Amino acid sequence: xxxxxxxxxxxxxxxxxxxxxxxxxxxxxxxxxxxxxxxxxxxxxxxxxxxxxxxxxxxxxxxxxxxxxxxxxxxxxxxxxxxxxxxxxxxxxxxxxxxxxxxxxxxxxxxxxxxxxxxxxxxxxxxxxxxxxxxxxxxxxxxxxxxxxxxxxxxxxxxxxxxxxxxxxxxxxxxxxxxxxxxxxxxxxxxxxxxxxxxxxxxxxxxxxxxxxxxxxxxxxxxxxxxxxxxxxxxxxxxxxxxxxxxxxxxxxxxxxxxxxxxxxxxxxxxxxxxxxxxxxxxxxxxxxxxxxxxxxxxxxxxxxxxxxxxxxxxxxxxxxxxxxxx
Amino acid sequence: xxxxxxxxxxxxxxxxxxxxxxxxxxxxxxxxxxxxxxxxxxxxxxxxxxxxxxxxxxxxxxxxxxxxxxxxxxxxxxxxxxxxxxxxxxxxxxxxxxxxxxxxxxxxxxxxxxxxxxxxxxxxxxxxxxxxxxxxxxxxxxxxxxxxxxxxxxxxxxxxxxxxxxxxxxxxxxxxxxxxxxxxxxxxxxxxxxxxxxxxxxxxxxxxxxxxxxxxxxxxxxxxxxxxxxxxxxxxxxxx
Amino acid sequence: xxxxxxxxxxxxxxxxxxxxxxxxxxxxxxxxxxxxxxxxxxxxxxxxxxxxxxxxxxxxxxxxxxxxxxxxxxxxxxxxxxxxxxxxxxxxxxxxxxxxxxxxxxxxxxxxxxxxxxxxxxxxxxxxxxxxxxxxxxxxxxxxxxxxxxxxxxxxxxxxxxxxxxxxxxxxxxxxxxxxxxxxxxxxxxxxxxxxxxxxxxxxxxxxxxxxxxxxxxxxxxxxxxxxxxxxxxxxxxxxxxxxxxxxxxxxxxxxxxxxxxxxxxxxxxxxxxxxxxxxxxxxxxxxx
Lengths: 327, 240, 289
Hints:
The complex is a heterotrimer of chains A (about 325), B (about 240) and C (about 290). Chain A is built from 14 helices and 2 strands; from the N terminus they run αααααβααααβααααα. With about 325 residues, chain A is mostly helical. Chain A is globular and about 55 Å long. The model of chain A has no long low-confidence stretch (mean pLDDT about 85). Chain B has 9 helices and 10 strands. Chain B has helices at about 40-50, 70-80, 95-105, 110-125, 140-150, 170-185, 195-200, 220-225, 225-235, and strands at about 1-15, 15-25, 30-35, 55-60, 65, 80, 155-160, 190, 205-210, 215-220. In chain B, the strands form 2 sheets. In chain B, strands 6-7-8-3-9-10 form a 6-stranded mixed beta sheet, with helices on both faces. In chain B, strands 2-1-4-5 form a 4-stranded antiparallel beta sheet, with helices on one face. The longest helix of chain B has 16 residues, at about 170-185. The radius of gyration of chain B is 18 Å and the shape is globular. Chain C is mostly helical. Chain C has one domain (about 5-280): ABC transporter involved in vitamin B12 uptake, BtuC (Orthogonal Bundle), CATH 1.10.3470. Chain C is about 75% helix and about 5% strand. Chain C has helices spanning about 5-35, 40-60, 65-85, 95-115, 140-165, 165-175, 175-180, 185-210, 220-235, 240-260, 265-280; strands spanning about 130-135, 135-140. The termini of chain C are far apart. The relative contact order of chain C is 0.21.
């Protein structure tokens, strides 16, 4: 079987399993699966900036938060549903991302300084939103959850199954988009920039514009995760949604799975979420109520991966499966 | 007909004058070598031509159009390709992908770029290694890859920065053959070189720089006998 | 808004700023020499704060005195951390190092959370509510002692780097890694020593900080980011810059707290960080990055 055929078969299998999941799983399991897909999605979005274009962002929670608040504000203040609200969310996040990217790239900020800049913008926004009274301030913004059990897709009101499929669609869309991008001119140019920006310039690549494009696409994608977040959890707190721990949680999947690969973020997210959930259940079963266990676990995994498997766990697995060098 | 003209170029770095009033030209279809002791200003001129920085004074004219002060990607688009003294392959990409990046400068789609890239890899003898990661190549092959990548952008002028450095004499001869072939095919070449073997074998014209100024210019055989040139090279290792 | 109120606020800001400066000094020394961005810096500070709180609780030991044993302990831990964990990462790409320390920071913060719980704790020495008055201007005793301790530690560090042989060797490593190796300096040991010194610095800063604020596991990241703001504003690699930056941030935070909203004062710091990163990344006194 050729490599292409093998990848295709794997994908088809995965797709079938994911689509059929709600038939076999209970509500709790579905909620975990939804979370896995959420982090697979945000990981893919982050990966566009880091894995493809090589720009380390540690402030991606900014886009989740902005997207969430934009859609939620439109809904609570004007009754505008998420399908319309998402356009504002995307526009806002693209503007924010481009602004940050423009400032950073124009002034030659890269590497660690760039990461610090992204952290600063996220923190700045977090504290800022604490002071925006009409969006709830530190007390939070709440979306009304209707009691009826019917599925209202237009307003994203419904049961776990509906949310699962929405997230699945998003994650599948992200996967398809990234696969397409990787094979396109953008994919080649971004990887060239990631490997050696100076050499890329000498080959005619306007690295400034292409880096901005990566940031814009990454921000737009992440904003949709924010919209989902708002309508899924129905409450938004600046302290939580813009917090640096959110940003770190976003990058865990891709780093553990394999930055720059297509399957890496998905595998990483799946592994981490599943294990974290199991850990939480174990701790609860033992009768302990210790906040922070999950985060320590994440920290340890991150440490181990960075030390021993710096390219992520997907590339060696891909090799074993004969799927080439990951991706 | 001069493809590249440098007119009264000057550049200083923090008070140190690297290049002073340099003027020379490279005829279309020609092969010119820029030589001189270390610190003479050769790479500075190169970098000005490649858009890394702008000259303080003077102009660089390419195909009748001023290119001094343009940024590197604009200069590539104008038709000037360059290699780097210390090779910069895209290590994580395959050999073919490296060249596709270059080819995308001239081709609108990836399939077309791939076809173009394959042709160029063939010409440079790297076709068999196209799917290997660039990081696994030996130094001579990396140099070829660097040239292939620059060639893929379809330049009219190729700037080669000490491309023979670190190569053994046989490897050097192979590269010389490649460049001769490319030049015969119509590619104009300007190269910086220390390895005299290559300079003597390739160059139609030699320009000699010393302390930022041009001290001699002419056919290789003449320049090598020029007393001023010999003086500035005294004590230098020269393979002739 | 009276002049004396503003004067009081500014003085409090300066004194607190000196403690911030000491913390940032540790960060600056580490980055300036080892070139590692210590993302776990704030967490180290928090652990030191907890150490001081515990020692006070158990032995009624004044944090100013507790600073000595805690600093010694942190020196050893910092040395081990650098030599053992971080050293292999020196040659790895920047973002790898960064993420390594992000991982360490996450683990530290949450272990603290697990051990101590989320509630804040503090220290209550007898002199914490006293102050000296010069005219209408008040100098809090606790703040003055803290600032003096910070200055003394900083002075000690300056002297070490300027005048001792080891200090000079460390500065040589910072200037030229390869050159240092060639002349036979044991770079790995010197790096570990530097990290240890940076950690000791932050330990002292943490201990004396308990005289001014309370501690909770959540304060770690805030101090890390504050440290970066100060170091970048003051200039990476410049020790004096770290102190000056600390004072500058201390004063502007205090004034921002007075004129705007107290909870918005860190927003001001981040705004400043963004501006400095964009306009003058070498900060006030640093070298160009």
